[in-house]
Structure formats: C-alpha cells, structure tokens
Amino acid sequence: GAAVKPESIEVTTKRKASIMHRFKKLAKEEWGLVNDFLRPRQKSFLTYLRSVLFYVMIPVTALSAILYYLCDNPRFLFAGSPSISWFLIFLFVRQTITLSLAKATEIIIIDFLCLRTRVTLKLCGPLITLVIIQSKGWPFVLGFWGLYDLLMLTGPERFSNHWLFFQSWISLFNSNNPSGSITSNVWSTNLYISAIVVGVVVALKRFAVGLYIGGRAYSKYGTKLAATIHKMIIVSQIASYAKEIEKATAG
Fold it and tell me: What is the DSSP secondary structure assignment for residue 1, as one 8-state letter?
C-alpha cells in the first residue's frame, strides 16, 4: 500500500495529544467541582450515617436476630403474615436504606447537577430543570422513596423478599425467614405509586405557582426594574468616563 507520510503521522499525534490534554483538563475541573461540592457535606453525611447505623439499623437487626434465633421466630397472627423479625428488618432497615437512597438522589440531582452544573439544563431543558428544582425537599424525597420501594421492595421475586437471598450463611436474611405476602401485596404497590404521584403533583403545583407569581411580579415591576437597570448602566458609564478623564489629566 501507499506509504504514510511523516507529516500526517505528526498531525495525528498532535491531535491525539491535544484531545488527551483537553480531556485531562476537563476531568480535573469536574473532579474539583465534585470535591468542592462534597467537602462541606462530609461532616453531616458521617453524622447521618452514624445515627442511622447505631440508633436504627444495628439495634433493630440485633433485636430481629434475638427473635429469630432465640425466640423461635414468632409470626403475626393474620393470614399470609411475615415473621416479626422479617417485618422489623423490612420496616426499619430496608425502608431506611431506600429513604437514604432517595435523599442521596436529591443531593446529586438537585443540589449538584441542577444547581452546580449545566448538565440537567442541557439534557432536559429549562422547564423540566425548573420543575425538578421546585420539587426540592419532601416532594422529591417522597417520590423517589416510593420509586425505590417500587423497584426494590415490590413483587414476588426473591430479591424483593430478601436482599441477601443468595447467601446461605445467615438464615435471618434469606428465604428461611418467612416474608409473608407484604412485598407482593397490591396495597403496598398502590402506596408506593401514590407516593410517586404525590411528589410529582406537588412539584408541578410549585412550578405552576412560581410561574404565576413570577409572571405577575414581572408585569407589575418589570418596567420599573428595566428603568432602574438602565439608570445603573448610565451611572456606570459616567463613572468609567470620569476615570478615563482623570487618567488623561494625570498623564
């Protein structure tokens, strides 16, 4: 075949080096942005993690282990009921984890992607981004809590009943511990869906109210604000001219 010219090889090498340099620069900037975002939140994150582990998850898991291994694993008396140990883990451990995931999702999507970067704005547009920001707080957390419960705690699958179904060392966390019909119950599914719907509806309501109030405020004060900004620009220009005259005089 035709020989490759040294000039073309040099151009290709320079292009690759330029792409790698831009990629490294971008990665460094993004990492700095992430680091600046996470640093002030480290203390509150560790405090939350410590509180959840030592005041909720570990004590409840210990109590469930006592009921399962030492008290013959008692069950509720209604039909299709789970064991009390399984229900305690479901209510205070697994629900705490899905709630924490919802809160972490809020921090990542709203506090970081929406308010610190332009990623959401580019991907979803300004309207959807504004709706997401307006959902900040309990509507966002409630909606994603319902979504995570729907994905991780609903259905007849073994994963829904026991997240650690695949292991056989700790029978407290696998199918040996009766789970009843809670995860496959239609009422549970409807409850999770309702949480999602409520979160979305409240977010849309906040967006509509904010849009309405913003429109009213603009129609009422927009002209005055524009006049004030125009006057500020004139004052800034006069100050700039005065500095130039002062410099010319001093020279």
Answer: -
